[in-house]
């Protein structure tokens, strides 16, 4: 599976035309303990860059933007029930939502791992 | 991930703490000053950020949530040395004269404040707003004031302009201020200073710690029992380390200080209080003693007395209330509406967060008088979505003061 990143600290795992989205370990560490997660509705059609989800720590709320254009096909309710899952397993059990992509050409705009490391180092 | 544009002023800890890149916002007009305990904070893993002109610890490695809970369960040590410590001494040497002078600037009964006692107060503006909130302790030959960091310069100018003829006004810039808060605070501090064990809430006294003159008050801003300790800057590190030697004590940053005070229902200047809010609007009536009210022996005689005394009698058109968001955290700046569709704003949230000990979101905000009743339901606009909030009693968790 191909994992890409955004400059807004999201990770995107792409399999065919399905993308799983979450926040990076760097992002969860910077935000601190999460206490609230709001996920998009399944079936929502979102353009790239639209506010898709919200994660909140004690101190701040942060928008999670749709990294790619498409339709939300699945969300991870476990993160709503237990937001700390995003802190403990940001790139595994703490995934947030899955998008069925409508424009595969957008994939080229995402960062690969070395490019993402450069912006967080 | 985009940090939300949470409204914030220069003295707010919240903008920098949650952002991915806190250092990028460090555009201070003046060079940042370091606290006397700066090195200790670094050694103990503090995440630092600019706050009110100082480089301050926002949190340490346990994180805000764990620090908050530790304070309520054991004891937290806070470095609040950024706050202004001011001595007010009458030129004649008579303590009562300084108290009378200060009463011309605050709607509080300072004259009856006995030696060894401390009282909450606020400086008011000519229009009845709050210029700053502060603590006043009576140490007999002088009054000791603790004011907000962001207000120090303005407060000093105001005190000097209005009181210099009668009083000397001295900023204690060579002192650190530590707070130890939580159920274990008394056991920890009394191991160093046995006499503090007999103090009650808002008692204040001068004690020696290893030969250093310390001003200690049994008070704080977390809702817990605890003490605030003014210590000479040169001795701050050794005193802090002696407190931290105790296994129940952890360093706590400004982030948890904010969630602790909000959960305790306490106001933060620049957020819940400002020059645009009066003490009556801010529900601080309790801090205005009968002697200063209409019919009292020293009624009025402070800036904005006409507005404040009238509001004490007739009520204010809006009031600060506790709010419990039903579904999600609601932050400072969220506008309040009567229902999910209304276009007419009714008020504004002034502080809001997830409250770790209350186990859910809590907030405070100003609402019209007609909606101050506990149980009143309003809607907060959170980035375009209306979310229900209910007016509730403060504090959100019980206070544990040692009265």
What would you note in describing this structure?
The complex is a heterodimer of chains A (121) and B (403). Chain A is of the alpha+beta class. Chain A has 4 helices and 9 strands. Helices cover 21% and strands 38% of the residues of chain A. The radius of gyration of chain A is 13 Å and the shape is globular. Chain B has 2 domains: 65-244 and 272-314, Probable tRNA modification gtpase trme, domain 1 (Gyrase A, domain 2); 317-392, Elongation Factor Tu (Ef-tu), domain 3, CATH 2.40.30. Helices cover 20% and strands 31% of the residues of chain B. Chain B is built from 9 helices and 21 strands. In chain B, helix 3 packs across helix 8. Chain B starts with a strand and ends in an 11-residue tail after the last strand. Residues 3-28 of chain B have low confidence and may be disordered. Strand 7 of chain A pairs antiparallel with strand 1 (2-3) of chain B, so a sheet runs across the interface.
Any idea what the CATH superfamily of the largest domain in chain B is called? Probable tRNA modification gtpase trme, domain 1
In total, the number of strands of chain B is 21
Radius of gyration based on Cα positions of chain B: 21 Å
Strand fraction of chain B = 25-35%
Distance between the termini of chain A: 24 Å
Span of the ends, CA to CA of chain B: 46 Å
Q: Beta-strand level of the residues of chain A, as a percent range?
A: 35-45%
Q: What form of chain B results from the Cα inertia axes?
A: globular
Radius of gyration of chain A: 13 Å
* Quaternary state of the chains: heterodimer
Number of separate domains of chain A: 1
Number of strands of chain A: 9
CATH level 3 topology of chain A: OB fold (Dihydrolipoamide Acetyltransferase, E2P)
Mean pLDDT over the full residue set of chain B: 93
Question: What characterizes the major β-sheet of chain B?
Answer: 6 strands, mixed
Shape of chain A: globular
By DSSP (H or I, 4+ residues per run), the number of helices of chain B equals 9
Helices and strands of chain B: which structural class? alpha+beta
Strand order of the largest sheet of chain A: 1-2-3-9-8-5
């Amino acid at each position: 599976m191909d994992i890409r990143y955004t400059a807004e600290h999201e990770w995107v795992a792409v399999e065919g035309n399905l993308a799983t989205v979450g926040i990076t370990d760097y992002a969860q560490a910077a935000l601190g303990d999460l206490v609230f997660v709001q996920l998009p509705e399944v079936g929502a059609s979102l353009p790239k860059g639209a506010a898709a989800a919200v994660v909140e720590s004690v101190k701040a709320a942060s928008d999670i933007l749709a990294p790619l254009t498409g339709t939300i096909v699945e969300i991870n309710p476990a993160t709503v029930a237990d937001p700390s899952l995003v802190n403990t397993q940001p790139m595994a059990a703490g995934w947030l939502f899955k998008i069925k992509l409508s424009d595969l050409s957008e994939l080229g705009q995402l960062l690969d791992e070395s490019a993402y490391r450069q912006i967080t180092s | 991930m985009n940090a939300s544009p949470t409204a914030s002023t220069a003295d707010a800890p919240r903008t920098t703490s949650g952002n991915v890149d806190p250092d990028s916002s460090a555009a201070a007009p003046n060079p940042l000053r370091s606290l006397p305990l700066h090195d200790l904070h670094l050694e103990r893993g503090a995440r630092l950020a600019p706050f009110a002109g100082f480089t301050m610890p926002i949190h340490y490695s346990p994180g805000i949530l764990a620090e908050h809970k530790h304070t309520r369960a054991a004891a937290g040590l806070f470095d609040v040395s950024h706050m202004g410590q001011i001595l007010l001494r009458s030129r004649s040497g008579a303590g009562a004269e300084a108290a009378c002078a200060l009463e011309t600037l605050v709607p509080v009964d300072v004259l009856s404040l006995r030696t060894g006692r401390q009282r909450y107060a606020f400086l008011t503006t000519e229009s009845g707003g709050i210029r700053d909130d502060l603590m006043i302790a009576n140490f007999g030959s002088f009054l000791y004031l603790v004011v907000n960091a962001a207000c120090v310069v303005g407060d000093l100018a105001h005190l000097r302009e209005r009181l210099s003829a009668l009083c000397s006004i001295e900023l204690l810039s060579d002192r650190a201020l530590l707070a130890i808060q939580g159920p274990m605070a008394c056991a920890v501090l009394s191991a160093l200073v046995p006499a503090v064990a007999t103090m009650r809430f808002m008692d204040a006294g001068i004690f020696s710690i290893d030969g250093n003159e310390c001003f200690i008050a049994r008070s704080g801003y977390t809702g817990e029992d605890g003490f605030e300790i003014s210590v000479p800057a040169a001795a701050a590190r050794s005193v802090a380390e002696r407190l931290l030697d105790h296994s129940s004590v952890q360093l706590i940053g400004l982030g948890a200080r904010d969630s602790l005070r909000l959960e305790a229902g306490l106001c933060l200047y620049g957020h819940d209080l400002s020059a645009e809010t009066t003490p009556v609007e801010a529900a601080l009536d309790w801090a205005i003693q009968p002697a200063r009210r209409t019919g009292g022996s020293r009624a009025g005689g402070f800036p904005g007395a006409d507005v404040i005394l009238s509001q004490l009698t007739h009520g204010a058109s809006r009031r600060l209330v506790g709010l419990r968001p039903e579904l999600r955290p609601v932050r400072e700046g969220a506008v309040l509406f009567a229902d999910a569709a209304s276009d007419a704003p009714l008020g504004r949230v002034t502080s809001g967060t997830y409250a770790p000990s209350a186990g859910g979101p809590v907030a405070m905000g100003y609402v019209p008088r007609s909606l101050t009743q506990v149980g009143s339901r309003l809607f907060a606009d959170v980035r375009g979505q209306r979310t229900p909030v209910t007016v509730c009693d403060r504090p959100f968790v019980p206070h544990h003061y040692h009265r």
